[in-house]
């Protein structure tokens, strides 16, 4: 394995780290801990696809948030391309939040 080689799991972890730097503007918790990221796929061409949701379909950042996620992922070394798909199935609920997020928001 050459030094340039990176496995898809390792790249997936880098993607998650970057996603954890993106915050919902209305809630002081990153979108990963909020449970807005449903899935991160990395293929052998280092194309990344993120399946995510928003807290509500008419979320004020419905346009900008997925774009921010896509741009930040594309900025990672080795990522060939990135695509963000928004879904509302299943709809987001507070149950999807991590313990950390619930603690941060005083829900525990």
Model description:
With 108 residues, the chain is an alpha+beta fold. It has one domain: GMP Synthetase, Chain A, domain 3. Helix content is 27%, strand content 17%. The chain has 3 helices and 3 strands. A 3-stranded mixed β-sheet has the order 1-2-3, with helices on one face. The longest helix has 12 residues, at 8-19. It holds the Pfam family FeS_assembly_P.
Topology (SSEs and partners):
Layout: H1 8-19, E1 37-42, E2 47-52, H2 64-74, E3 81-86, H3 99-104
Parallel strand pairs: 2-3
Antiparallel strand pairs: 1-2
Count of discrete structural domains? 1
State which percent range the strand residues make up. 15-25%
Class, according to the CATH hierarchy? Alpha Beta
SS field, number of helical segments: 3
Low-confidence stretches: none
Percent in helix: 25-40%
Give me the strand/helix succession.
HEEHEH
Considering the protein shown, what is the CATH homologous superfamily?
Fe-S cluster assembly (FSCA)
Total strand count, please? Answer: 3
Name the quaternary structure: single chain
| Spatial shape | globular
Main-sheet strand order equals 1-2-3
Class by alpha and beta content: alpha+beta
Largest sheet: 3 strands, mixed
Cα-to-Cα separation, first versus last residue = 46 Å
Provide mean pLDDT, rounded: 92
Write down the CATH topology. GMP Synthetase, Chain A, domain 3
Radius of gyration: 14 Å
Briefly, what is this?
The protein has 108 residues and is of the alpha+beta class.
């Amino acid at each position: 394995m050459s030094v340039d080689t990176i496995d898809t799991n390792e790249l997936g972890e880098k993607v998650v780290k970057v996603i954890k730097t993106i915050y919902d503007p209305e809630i002081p918790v990153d979108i990963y801990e909020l449970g807005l990221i449903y899935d991160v796929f990395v293929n052998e061409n280092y194309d990344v696809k993120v399946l995510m949701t928003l807290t509500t379909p008419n979320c004020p950042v419905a346009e900008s948030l997925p774009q921010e996620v896509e741009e930040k992922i594309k900025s990672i070394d080795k990522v060939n391309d990135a695509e963000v798909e928004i879904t509302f199935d299943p709809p987001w609920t507070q149950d999807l939040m991590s313990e950390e997020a619930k603690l941060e928001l005083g829900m525990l």
